[in-house]
Task: structure prediction
Amino acid sequence: MSKPEEDLLAGIRVLLRIFTVDETRFPPAEGRIKYNAIDFQALHFIAENSDCSGAALASFLGVPATTAQSVIERLIHRGYVARGSGTGRAIALSLSKEGQGICAAIRRQDISNCGTMLNALPENERSDFAAKIHIIAQALESVETK
Result:
């Protein structure tokens, strides 16, 4: 492995531990709920795609329909997601009022965490760094899976 890849790997491992495992330093969702990657991603997707189907959520997450269904059931049970009407087996999903509040808290915490990370860089490098991360994310998101 070359030096840039090793540095990137080491950095990503530290960031993942600090922001997703160690809940004492940067509590997820402003300390309102425990971090669960798939739940947070599902809430974000449903917030951005109100009245989406479970199949659309499964496709976005890249998981089997049964896994997405388990996530949906858990989020409904916690009061964050509501089922709407649908045709056949497709049921429209949306955030409940509580889910909207949790999503807003997640976003505020995420923005705060990003600010913390960017503050480690000199001010004149922050925009360029954020733009490069965005380019990487877009490139990876557009890669076809097998």
Q: What stands out?
A: The CA atoms of residues 84 and 92 lie 5 Å apart. The first helix runs from residue 3 to 21.
